[in-house]
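User: Structure tokens for this complex, please. No commentary.
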Amino acid sequence: MGLENLLLGFQIAVTPFNIFVAVVGVLLGTIIGVLPGLGGANGVAILLPLTFTMPPTSAIILLTSIYWGALFGGAITSVLFNIPGEPWSVATTFDGYPLAKQGQGGQALTAAFTSSFVGAFFSIVLITFFAPLLAEVALRFGPPEFFAIQLLTFSSFVGLGGGNPLKSLASILVGFLLASVGLDIVTGQLRLTFGFTDLMKGFDFIVAVIGLFGIGEILLSVEEGLRFEGAQARLNPRVVFQTWRILPRYARTFVRGSLIGFWMGFKPGGATPASFMSYAFAKRFSRHPERFGKGEIEGIVAPETAAHAAGVAAMLPMITLGIPGSPTAAVMLGGLIIWGLQPGPMLFKDRPDFVWGLIASMYTGNVIGVLMVLTMVPLFAAILRVPFAILTPLIVFVCAIGAYAVHTSMIDIWYMLIFGVVGYVFKKLDYPLAPLVLALVLGDMSENALRQSLIMSQGSLAIFATRPIAAAITAAALILFALPLVAALRRRGWGLASTVGPSAAPHGP
Amino acid sequence: MRAADLATATVLMLLGGVVIYDALRLGIGWGTDGPQSGFFPFWLAVALVAVSATILAQTALTARPRPFVTREQLERVLRVLGPLAGFVVLIDPPGPLGGLGLYVAAALYLGFYMRWAGRHRWPTVVLVAIAVPVAAFLIFERWFLVPMPKGPLEAWLGY
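Assistant:
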């Protein structure tokens, strides 16, 4: 039953215009991924205004293609410049940069791109089969179930996010509070505006994404005084085919990475732990663990496969439940609303052309993506050689355009500036930004789900324990919330009264 | 680092306090049609106060000598942030005075920053500072029909 739907999707995704859109998207996305200060989430946010006048399916294809491009672009900076564009590319630098310095950059990049492709492809196939099933199940969900899922979403940031769980929690709460500013659509009352008319419209998360991730990231990178001194890479067909001949040796790593990535990825914040976990497993099962960190191809294959499998898997809850698994997916969800679509399980019934066009475009987008990056690496690497004094104001300019376009409102450019400074301070103090953004996106939805649940039960929280599906999900969420507490208590049991480590050390297995 | 951490936690606590104050005004109980407007923000804010108080205590108990920013780092950040804020002011300053619009402000900002921070040659500066906003104008105003804030120059040109 799924196959004819997929076929329908391909008929939509493989029109000349949509292929063109995908090519442009991948190109822009890769540039965004390579540029400092721009990544998947804010890149998609900035280019969102370009999609306002497009048909929704082409619009989502553009945004997802930007996302694929950004994921590929992150690998280029990691390998050639030792700069992980995103947290989940950190593990790629361990072996990628040493290889590039040894003059094997082409091989490293081929391995990275191919692994990304394999990981992404694996997840797309799983999405093709699981998404309709999940949507079918989700159709029977009521407000308590949706609220429970949202609880689970945020609990995984606290329980699995690494770093200081209290700070993750604070970020989530700040995001929710920002979301509640403005008109309360249920009662029609103004909340937290204190008489300022500008606050009535509330805070748009797209502006927050551009400020927190875009401007904040620029401030962070200038502070470190980044110099882009990259290794050179020659990437010609010979190198590509030679590398492809070696890669089948790592079949087990590919499969393991894909599985880890998918499993971790459909939960929020999963891509980073997935990449580290996959790296650690590959090292443990390798016959030459001592080579890891010095330029081992398998050390690129493992994290890249997992990170991309996770990056794609993050789209699963976005399409089926209307709950984004990552800030990028959140921005796309915002796009859906702007284009006049209602995200959630009904989308499969109401707009099969959109959903299946999107799923089919994941296949085409990734094929186009891997071909483009393999052939155009020198071009993308050249972007980082553009002088910093031109790149910085250029990125700021583009960010300002993106922020203004959301509501054609000047106040949003000011918010962008403020969010930029907040993002810089939060990032330095290890307050994670992704949960803040997701809370800002889901704020209204969560509140409505909670309110409706409480109305159903006449104000009793017991509703989350008596409905079986809601109870199971709520229990899982509570366990995740409690996880850091248990860990802290256990540490105390060993006589160490140390508080939870403040450093956002990457979370290993 | 410690001072900045303490300050941030304090700000978050105050923020929580402000929200609680407004939530109490809105009502945090049960209205005629379910939970009142202040219900959800109230409990979030209570949690935020509790969490930031714990962070405050945690930070106060652990000494961390590493500074939040070195003088040098702060200088580098301000050298980006200053022109950035200037750019935003130029687009449309708060108050009755009209701004220059996005494109002209961007040209000035690009030109200033390239010359001041990058010491690029004047021909390059002028070329980039004009070409980039013009390209953006064509893309957004003409092709994708997304209007941006405009100033006297655009008005004079008939937009």
